[in-house]
Design brief:
about 260 residues; mainly alpha; Serine Threonine Protein Phosphatase 5, Tetratricopeptide repeat; about 0% strand
């Protein structure tokens, strides 16, 4: 009964104008779509453009090609081709050519560039003097010989050339080198001889320590005592016996022969 009354009774509420306006605004706001919140995006990194390789002019490309040909001629020691090239393009020869020739061990090219072209050995290439690029003693001696012949030509100390090399001094150095080689060969020979002697000594010691060989069994399997005068390696073979043994064998033979005659 009470439930019926609660459901059937009309309830009246009195709202003010502001309250009604607030309800209207809430209803209208519920009908409008919700605004999406846009998250701020991180700024895109700016990639610096890669500078394009500068395009060479035909003249620059031709000069670069000549430099490659020049380096190839120097490394291969083509002096016959190098002479006309330098005569035609003298302004394109620099200390780089001398340094490359020194590192490539081209003796004729180094001599030509130093004595005829007169390239300056005091200039640097890749942070080092041309003398520092030398790959062998023979190439270094070319610098030292020229330093001895023409000490005023360049500041050889600035070129890192230690000292001049005269013919007498070079001959003395070669003599000392030959003596060192000879002494080394003699030492090697003595070492080989000593090793051979030690090997022979070891073989002798091993042979002495080895047990004596065992005598082979007689042919035919006979192991009993044998009569003197019997077959020893063949009929009548008395080689290898002492005189006393041979006399005993002869007596035994004679006794057997006499017994055979009496038995007839």
């Amino acid at each position: 009964m009470r439930c019926w009354q609660e459901l059937s009774r009309v309830k009246v509420s009195h709202l003010t104008a502001d309250a009604l306006q607030a309800q209207d605004d809430a209803y209208i706001a519920s009908l409008q779509p919700k605004k999406q919140v846009i998250k701020p995006q991180a700024p895109t990194p700016v990639v610096a453009p890669v500078p394009a390789a500068p395009k060479l002019s035909p003249e620059e490309e031709a000069k670069l090609d000549r430099q490659r040909r020049l380096i190839d001629m120097i490394k291969k020691g083509r002096l016959d081709s190098l002479r006309p090239f330098i005569a035609k393009y003298p302004d394109e020869i620099s200390v780089q050519a001398l340094a490359i020739a020194s590192s490539s061990a081209q003796e004729e090219v180094v001599t030509y560039l130093l004595e005829e072209i007169k390239l300056n050995p005091t200039q640097s290439f890749e942070g080092r003097k041309p003398y520092d690029h030398c790959s062998s003693k023979a190439i270094r001696n070319i610098y030292r010989r020229l330093a001895f012949k023409q000490p005023e030509m360049w500041d050889w100390k600035e070129a890192h050339v230690p000292s001049g090399l005269s013919e007498e001094k070079e001959e003395e150095e070669n003599k000392k080198k030959a003596e060192r080689r000879k002494g080394l060969k003699e030492k090697l020979k003595e070492r080989d001889t000593k090793r051979a002697e030690e090997a022979e000594e070891e073989e002798r010691n091993a042979a002495a320590a080895a047990p004596p060989p065992v005598a082979a069994a007689p042919v035919g399997g006979k192991t009993g005592p044998q009569k003197l005068g019997g077959k020893i390696g063949g009929e009548g073979n008395l080689s290898g016996m002492t005189p006393e043994m041979r006399m005993r064998v002869e007596r035994e033979r004679r006794a057997r022969a006499a017994e055979a005659r009496f038995a007839k």
